């Protein structure tokens, strides 16, 4: 999701292109307990949890979900083969493929060339076999099918929306059933049969403002997810959601509680809480686990986000916590600790104020920790990012919370040997 557009709100890492293994079986006893728990929660609210025609979502425990971007095949030169050679494929349970577009009230193709047309040579291919000029499917879709063949338990979801393309959800919400029909037909297109195991929705943000503002009302999001659940019977349905837990913030704008019954899990985007869109600072870590003395804004940390969502009655097992495989930084900073003033965003390879972990770890090594994440002061630059150490600690915290797993944005930010993903617990 690298590119010039950037949200000033937590969780905006899921930008739009130009440029954010489900276990084979779940024990029958666990399934019964989960179902009973969920049904009791809905019964107490006086609601029926699922439409009669819909399959119930599966348990979320133990998930490691990584975003793979279609635009990564260009300047970043990151391909499906890198998921294999880095060792990431052995760690992942799910891949969210980002992004499909939302236009005209429908799910549409994001980048046809990267998705299914780009030809791969033998040395670029997951299985060492070159594409031929006349084969029916090439591009990322074919390479990901090859990856799934090597890893039969790996599941792949097609994620739609993102920062730039979320404006299309306003129209889609006017006829959720038609939208769901279009998404189902595209995700299950015969040309890439067997690739996708479900759909992920990244609407930034329902009944609130992101790149554009939506005013479709608090019921729009649950209505959309209900239609998707009914259509994608037996498939995964997930949603990346805001992490803004401030009073009157984005979590309060949409009915995430009601929509939770229709999703297998939520991915609250617990990163991008702070960044150099506030050009003069104060410097603050973009992905704090907890609050700390001097944090610029209440409700902008992972613990606050998860606490608020659980407080709505959303089961902990349906919540994954988010990690950023990148850092955010400021320039013109003299203070080593957070809270310093700045003159603007720090330089980055693809965009000012942001840099991949694989580059930052050596260019500006961590010099301290605050709020459960790391920060670095080098010269007149100040950066914050997670390290293997802080990621492991976040995993311990998530286990204590009973969360369903973790997800991260995005695969190409990691080192060539998967240093960050291997630290995820």
TrEMBL record:
It is an enzyme of class 3 (hydrolase). It comes from the Bacteria. Keywords: Carbohydrate metabolism, Chitin degradation, Glycosidase, Hydrolase, Polysaccharide degradation. It catalyses: Random endo-hydrolysis of N-acetyl-beta-D-glucosaminide (1->4)-beta-linkages in chitin and chitodextrins. Its EC number is 3.2.1.14. Gene3D superfamilies: 3.10.50.10, Glycosidases. GO terms for molecular function: hydrolase activity. SMART domains: Glyco_18 (SM00636). Residues 62-425 form the GH18 domain. PANTHER family: CHITINASE (PTHR11177), CHITINASE 12-RELATED (PTHR11177:SF317). Belongs to the glycosyl hydrolase 18 family. This is chitinase. It comes from Streptomyces iconiensis.
